[in-house]
Write a structure and sequence with these properties.
- The protein is an all-beta fold and 119 residues long.
- The chain is 0% helix and 51% strand.
- It has no helices and eleven strands.
- Strand 5 and strand 6 (57-60) form a beta hairpin.
Length: 119
């Protein structure tokens, strides 16, 4: 059973925006950091964005800088990914991840939400 639940994926046209959300599927779920990964068709899973709550540090993969924004609520252990100016190469299954024991050591995952961007 996935410990995180994503929502917000869909089918859009290039240039459109989507907002992904991620919430824990269980109570008392504490995280040190949360992030987003994606797996394009036929490709490997890759890091997209992450946030370390206590340090307030945010990082993005280069291909989404300036277009995607990660945010969240550390008290509720929720995270969001605002995706603007979407491109066909952003097409992927997007996964939410959480690190509970050590920041950026991802140990919890969601089942993924599909994002398809047509040209």
């Amino acid at each position: 059973q996935a410990q995180l639940v994503e929502s917000g994926g869909g089918f859009v046209t290039a240039g459109d925006s989507l907002r992904l959300s991620c919430v824990p599927s269980e109570t008392n779920f504490k995280t040190l950091s949360m992030g987003w990964f994606r797996q394009p068709p036929g490709g490997d899973r890759e890091f997209v964005a992450g946030i370390i709550w206590r340090a307030g540090m945010i990082d993005y993969t280069d291909s989404v800088k300036g277009r995607f924004t990660i945010s969240g609520d550390s008290a509720k252990n929720m995270t969001f990914l605002q995706m603007n100016s979407l491109k066909p190469e952003d097409t992927a299954v997007y996964y939410c991840a959480a690190a509970r024991d050590r920041p950026l050591m991802w140990d919890s995952w969601g089942q993924g939400t599909q994002v398809v961007v047509s040209s």
